[in-house]
Specification:
Blueprint: H1 10-15, E1 29-33, H2 38-49, E2 53-58, H3 61-71, E3 78-82, H4 88-102, E4 107-110, H5 125-153, E5 157-162, H6 174-193, E6 199-206, H7 219-224, H8 237-248, E7 259-262
Parallel strand pairs: 1-2, 1-4, 2-3, 4-5, 5-6, 6-7
């Protein structure tokens, strides 16, 4: 258990079972946003175990530095850079630093994002824009900046976008549904446009995954999260990390424009209320 009481500890991340060989990403450079915690941290851990050189960005330098210090025990190099992905100039600086330090970029994992549970009717303009700006615009700035460099260098690359299971909507987080749906359909569109540049773009859509981010949701909602899917349990961060590796590796060399949904069957069956279920919807039970 991690220090926050959710997910895996650093010692556990070192030894989680994986289907991939240890040198799969040796000599490859992977940039992961939001790499200091949660899904980003777990994904960084797995890529590091597989030999990748890593550039980790996020909003909190201390979290990034802690992860980098621990991952320095593996074979690849690890660099960090505090970055506000809402700022296109900051994204350019991040990409410049990545190419300066590693000479190239092979894989971009867009994990950074955030939201807060609230009834949509109560959103402020500032709250709505904050989520859209990070989850949609920030992801786009990262995608386009990387793609332009790959196009100009003639090298190609792979992008993996962490999104959400938005097919049925998610009451309580309408703002992130709007943003993540935007990322999904932008990804599908540019997967076609950028195919001539040998750039692949895919998405991973997590369901209810146990991370420290769960602490933001009301206890009432968290208690019901296991009933949001047909398997009646939570997923874990390794489920997401292994999917990211799959889409970034040669295993997915003929896959682009797709979404891998990892939700225990929640898109087909389940009841998810991120801000708690209103009394109205419980009256018939």
């Amino acid at each position: 258990m991690s220090d926050e009481g959710f997910g895996f500890s650093e010692d556990e991340l070192d030894t989680l079972a994986t289907v991939y060989r240890p040198d799969l990403f040796a000599g490859k450079t992977v940039l992961i946003s939001g790499g200091g915690s949660g899904l980003g941290r777990a994904t960084a851990w797995l890529f590091a175990r597989l030999g990748a050189d890593l550039m980790l960005c996020g909003r909190t330098p201390e979290k990034l530095e802690r992860v980098a210090a621990r991952l320095g025990r593996f074979d690849g190099r690890v660099e960090t850079m505090a970055t506000n992905i809402r700022d296109p100039d900051a994204v350019t600086a991040l990409m410049d630093a990545t190419f300066d330090r590693f000479g190239k970029l092979d894989v971009l994992v867009n994990n950074a994002g955030g939201q807060f549970p609230q009834a949509a009717i109560d959103y402020s303009v500032k709250g709505w824009n904050a989520v859209i700006d990070t989850n949609l615009n920030g992801t786009w700035y990262m995608m386009q900046n990387a793609a332009r460099r790959w196009r100009d260098a003639g090298t190609g690359g792979a992008i993996v976008n962490i999104v959400a299971v938005v097919w049925r909507g998610m009451p309580g987080v309408a703002h992130t549904c709007a943003a993540r749906a935007g990322v999904i359909y932008t990804s599908k569109t540019v997967a076609v446009e950028w195919a001539p540049y040998d750039i692949r773009i895919n998405c991973v859509a997590p369901g209810t995954i146990e991370t420290e981010g769960m602490a933001q949701y009301p206890q009432e909602a968290r208690d019901l999260f296991p009933r949001s899917n047909a398997m009646l349990r939570l997923g874990d961060v390794q489920d997401i990390a292994e999917a990211c590796v799959y889409l970034a590796a040669p295993s997915a060399k003929f896959i682009t424009g797709e979404v891998i949904t990892i939700d225990g069957g929640g898109q087909m069956w389940g009841d998810l209320w991120t801000a708690g279920r209103p009394d109205y919807f419980a009256e018939g039970e």
